[in-house]
Write a structure and sequence with these properties.
The complex is a heterodimer of chains A (69) and B (278). Chain A is mainly alpha-helical. Chain A is built from five helices and no strands. Classes of the chains: A mainly alpha (69), B mainly alpha (278).
Chain lengths: 69, 278
């Protein structure tokens, strides 16, 4: 018979994802994972051309910022 | 107090670097060059006549309010990268608005403390006002109403220098001036109230404090628990009692300069290696 929970009541899938080994790995490499994710997002944004969109917004006086808009 | 001197110098340098376009202060205009492609690491309004870089919170708001998708990968990636290396070190060493708060707090007026629970409000401001409210209403309400940096660095100088701006001033500007005044009074009375309670940029960097390369380590055995670090801390963080890498700590290192040698040290690496006290 197949069980979809472990004896403590935690679903098997959650148990596998959040098992001690996985969490230890994430904790140990948190800085690297975070750094890589940030780098990926930065380059993703650059490829999408987001910086050009900000440029057109940032070179005119922002009326919202100065309390007029 | 070598650390205090270098911190102040660094804050001053960041203020000058972020606002180095002097022609803007003469002509009442703003910088329109290619450096505006880069977000500013600290809290600095890009409509300030001298600003060289784009305000990251202003850009996030703009994207949430007017973009086709709501979260800017470029800005979040940029801030995440800085946060992954430094955490809130930038708040302590490279934020002009932090400098203003530190200086105003030196005024000899009655001092008040900020309840710790109020510090969670900055996450509400970040998620609620900067992202959700901006996306729903299609208006950058943080910049439009709450941001005192915009009024101080952009609104007042442009009102004085640019006659077109002066002609457009209305009731909203007066409301922003009143909000700025409230913040200035609060800054004189409490330690870094804007950083601790409102600043969405500080909230982002604060979330990175636990995973950043730059970390602080507290050694229980070297500490004499005389609370000598307490008056030196600009955010009322207690290194001997709280987590040394808590999101509140701006890593100004002033506690390290007044504390016992080896009690607080700078380290690098993953949280599993350094987060707990020995």
């Amino acid at each position: 018979m197949l069980h979809n929970t472990i004896p403590s009541g935690m679903p098997v899938r959650s148990y596998l994802i959040f098992s001690g080994k996985t969490m230890r790995f994430i904790k140990r490499h948190a800085t690297k994972i975070f750094f890589a994710a940030a780098l990926l997002m930065l380059f993703g944004g650059l490829i999408a051309g987001e910086h050009n969109r900000f440029f057109t917004y940032a070179i005119v006086i922002c009326l919202d910022c100065i309390g007029i808009g | 107090m070598k650390v205090a001197f270098f911190q102040r110098l660094s804050q001053l340098c960041s203020l000058i670097l972020y606002n180095a376009y002097l022609a803007g202060f003469i002509g009442g205009t703003i910088y329109q060059g290619r450096l505006k492609l880069i977000p500013c690491p600290g809290f600095n309004c890009h409509s300030c006549p001298g600003a060289l870089f784009v305000c990251p919170i202003g850009a996030l708001q703009h994207f949430a309010a007017y973009g086709s998708y709501y979260i800017s990968l470029y800005i979040i990636g940029f801030l995440g990268l800085l946060g992954a290396v430094f955490g809130r070190f930038i708040c302590g060493w490279a934020c002009p608005f932090g400098l203003l708060q530190d200086l105003l707090n030196k005024l000899p007026v009655k001092k008040i403390s900020i309840p710790r629970r109020l510090e969670y409000l900055r996450y509400v401001v970040l998620v609620g006002i900067v992202f959700i409210v901006a996306a729903v209403t299609r208006q950058p309400w943080f910049c439009k109403l709450l941001c005192p940096a915009g009024t101080l660095e952009a609104g007042i100088p442009l009102m004085l220098l640019n006659e077109h701006v002066r002609a457009m001033i209305g009731p909203l500007f007066m409301v922003k001036m009143a909000i700025l005044l409230v913040f200035l009074v609060w800054m004189a009375m409490a330690k870094r109230p804007f950083c601790r309670v409102v600043c969405p940029l500080g909230a982002i960097y604060g979330l990175c404090n636990h995973v950043s390369i730059f970390k602080l380590k507290f050694n229980k055995r070297a500490c004499v628990y005389d609370a000598s670090c307490a008056p030196a801390c600009p955010v009322d963080h207690r290194m001997y009692r709280d987590d040394p890498n808590a999101s509140r700590c701006i890593r100004c290192l002033r506690c390290r300069s007044v504390c016992e040698p080896d009690a607080i040290s700078v380290t690098s690496g993953s949280p599993s290696d350094h987060s707990s006290a020995d």
